[in-house]
Every structure is written in C-alpha cells, then in structure tokens.
Amino acid sequence: MMSPKKADKIATGVLYGVSGVICIILAAMICFILFRGLPHISWQFLTGKAESYKVGGGIGIQLFNSIYLLLVTMLISFPISLGAGIYLSEYAKKNWLTDVIRTSIEILSSLPSVVVGLFGFLFFVVQMGYGFSIISGALALTLFNLPLMTRNVEESLRAVPFTQREAGLSLGLSRWETVIHVVIPEALPGILTGIVLSSGRIFGEAAALIYTAGQSAPALNWSDWNPLSVASPISIFRQAETLAVHIWKVNSEGTVPDGAQVSAGASAVLIIAVLIFNFGARFLGKKLHSKLTSA
Predict the structure, then answer these.
(1) How far apart are CA 282 and CA 285, in angstroms?
(2) Of the residues 25, 78, 153, 239, which has the maximum number of CB atoms within 10 A of its CB?
(3) What residue ranges define each of the domains in the chain, with the CATH number in brackets?
C-alpha cells in the first residue's frame, strides 16, 4: 500500500505537471501571435486608415473605437456594479431577493458573448432604435461586464476586516459614511484591479459587438466635436468597428489583399493591450496595497 507522503508527492507532481503544460501552451500561443504580428506593426499601421482591395491599410480608427467604446462601457457599468457590490456586501440580508440577485449574476456570467450580442441587437439596436452604434455596443458590454465587476466589488469589500467597520461606527460615523470613508478606501486596490482586468476583457471582445456596434469604421472628422454629429469622434450614435471585430472581418470577408499581414499585426496589438491590462492590474494592486499598508 502506498504511503500518504508518497501519494501526496505524486499528486503534487501531477498538479505541477498539468499547470506547467497549460502555461507552456499559453506562452506558445502568445509568442506565436507576437512573432507573426510584431514585424507588421509600425506607426503608419497604428494610425493609418483601413483599406479594402488594396494593400497598406492600418488600424487607427479601429484602435480609437476600441478605446472609446471601453471608456463609455466603464462609465456605464462601474457605477452600477459598485452600487450592487456595496448592497450585496454591506446591506443585503439572506432572503429571496438576494438569492434572485445572486442567481441572476451567475446566469449573466455564464452567458456566451454571442447571446449577449443577439440580445443587444434585438433590444438596443432594434427596439430602442439606437441602431448599430457605440451606445448599443456599450450597453451590451455592460450586461456582459456587470457580473464580473459586481462580484469583484463584493469580494473586495468583504475582504476588509469587520473591525474596521466597528472602528468607524465607534467614532460616530453612520453606516453609509463608514462604507464611503473606511471600507471602500481599504478595498480600493482590489476594486481597481478588477476594473483593469475587466477592461482587458472588454477590449478583446468581438462577438457581442458584431451585432451591436457594427462592422464598419467610417472616417472620423477630427475637427467636429459635436456629440450629435455621426461624423464626430465623440459621438456615441455612430458605428464603431473595434479592433477585435476588424480582425474577424478581415479574415472572414477576404477583401484585403494583405489581410494575413493586417490580421497578424492587429492580433499582436490586441494581445499586447490585453497583457498591459493584466500586468498593469497586478502592478496597480500591489502598489496601492503597499501604500495603504505603509500609511
């Protein structure tokens, strides 16, 4: 019969081996994408206009659309998820209402992004009349992003020791003032880390945006900053093909002669952006945590 120590070593070795294989596969995929795409990245590629039926196109408008759509989505989803997280962590009691909320969050988090996109198309694009636009894409991504951010806010707040809440209340602060001035500042590193990680998830999303934000990237009039004009860069009612959607479109339509090079370069840019979001989240979380602990 095998001894417990030997069985533990074998199980640990198997787990390390599986983890190592997964890391190697992930690293190989990232290196392959970067190896193929980095030679095609240049300033002209990052700022140029996408072309059809001729070579030399860029991703400037698509890159701007991705960043702008990300900002609009976060402006909509963060206040909602922050309020929901505070309610679930600080005020919610164990009853049927909180059970329904938590079940809804779990259901939303398990929905495929294409289902969210189809719902966004039927509701925001058709019923609400927003058409293919940034606001339709942002609202669809809000549904896609809310479960992740709500759970992140709730878990970050729950990680704050209860003694800090008692200290705030003992100083004469109300429950709401304790949450605002004591609990949230202490949970800020975890909340910001979740925001950055969810931003990377949004930045690389394609399926939900194909049916909501549109598949075209019209030229933008950079001198027109009227938000009601569809040619304005800041208008939320214009179509906005993002970088991830552009990669899908280039590979599916075949109208770009150098489509393989454009797709490889755009994929490398997307991977680099997601890596920046992920490593930035870890760095920001550690930096804020060290500052708060030293203070």
Answers:
(1) 5
(2) 153
(3) 62-294 (1.10.3720.10)
- CA-nearest of 150, 250, 232 to 241 is 250
Spatial distance between the Cα atoms of 266 and 45, rounded to a whole number of angstroms: 9
- What count of other Cβ atoms lies within 10 Å of the Cβ of residue 97? 10
Nearest to 69 by CA among 204, 194, 195: 204
* Tokens read off for 53: 């039926």
**208 Cβ neighbours under 8 A, 6+ residues apart:** 113, 114, 116, 117, 120, 137, 140, 141, 144
The answer to whether the CB of 267 falls within 8 A of the CB of 163 is: no
The whole-model pTM stands at 0.87
CA distance 219 to 150: 36
Q: What is the maximum span of the chain, computed from C-alpha positions, in angstroms?
A: 79
pLDDT (tens digit per residue) in 163-180: 888 888 888 888 888 888
